[in-house]
Amino acid sequence: MARRRMIYEGKAKILYEGPEPDTLIQYFKDDATAFNAQKHAVIEGKGVLNNRLSEHFMSGLNAIGVPTHFIRRLNMREQLVRMVEIIPLEVVVRNFAAGSMAKRLGIDEGTALPRPIIEFYLKDDALGDPLVTEEHVIAFGWASQQDVDDMVALALRVNDFVSGVMYGVGIRLVDFKIEIGRVFEGDFQRLIVADEISPDSCRLWDIETNQKLDKDVFRHDIGSLTDAYTEVATRLGVMPRNG
Ligand code: C5P
């Protein structure tokens, strides 16, 4: 069998050419990175967990009418996704202060925010993904005003859905990052959620204990990342506890 053509290799995923036009295969690696890849480890099984978890969120979003690139899971580590033109921004939504925002603004971790706060970060490893404003986004042409409005609307819908799903299993969605891509349908362009939604890109705290169940476990060496992600997957019913 001919080897598949690799389109792109990122820190935690690889994209291969898909079997049909305008599709890609998204492969989830076991690599974990933090602090702009200064910290790196291979955590056996992480890719399998994130493939399942991202499938769970993305297929749920599709089902309620929030468009995503997810088509179907192919196997333990791969999913078929729509090809998109990625907007070079990381869109972060925060419900509670944590991470870089808590530090930047001197707000105690865990403080409830008055409303969800959306931030844009420029996807640029060499610059360390700097925070940018809507003014920058539009002035430098990374996205149009209409795109910004659409990204905000999309991000808030993802926030409501994922917050609700997580609340149902006793987990608080503190914040998360999504990536958004353009698809072209006739003369129209539409923005859809791309990349992944998993504990790699969310902060998830147990509602009762505030135990961290996300990549902060790896970032700050506070336990087993596999145990944390397995806990999330088990509560959501997407993985058997020892499976
Ligand atoms: O580090 P910071 O507090 O800005 O991260 C906000 C949210 O975005 C966290 O859930 C984090 O996991 C996610 N994030 C990400 N990829 C990045 C930066 C942040 O998934 N490159």
UniProtKB/TrEMBL annotation:
Catalytic activity reported: 5-amino-1-(5-phospho-D-ribosyl)imidazole-4-carboxylate + L-aspartate + ATP = (2S)-2-[5-amino-1-(5-phospho-beta-D-ribosyl)imidazole-4-carboxamido]succinate + ADP + phosphate + 2 H(+)
Any one of the GO CC terms: cytosol
InterPro entries reported in the protein's UniProt record: SAICAR_synt/ADE2_N, SAICAR_synt_PurC, SAICAR_synth, SAICAR_synthetase, SAICAR_synthetase_CS
Residues making up the signal peptide according to the UniProt record: none
One Pfam family here: SAICAR_synt
EC number in record: 6.3.2.6
A molecular-function term among this protein's GO annotations: phosphoribosylaminoimidazolesuccinocarboxamide synthase activity
Domain SAICAR synthetase/ADE2 N-terminal: 7-235
Superkingdom of origin: Bacteria
Keyword Ligase set for record: yes
GO biological process, one term: 'de novo' IMP biosynthetic process
Protein's UniProt keywords contain ATP-binding: yes
PANTHER family: MULTIFUNCTIONAL PROTEIN ADE2, SI:DKEY-6E2.2
HAMAP family: SAICAR_synth (MF_00137)
Family stated for the protein in its record: Belongs to the SAICAR synthetase family.
Name of this chain's protein: Phosphoribosylaminoimidazole-succinocarboxamide synthase
Native species: Algicella marina
Higher taxonomy: Bacteria, Pseudomonadati, Pseudomonadota, Alphaproteobacteria, Rhodobacterales
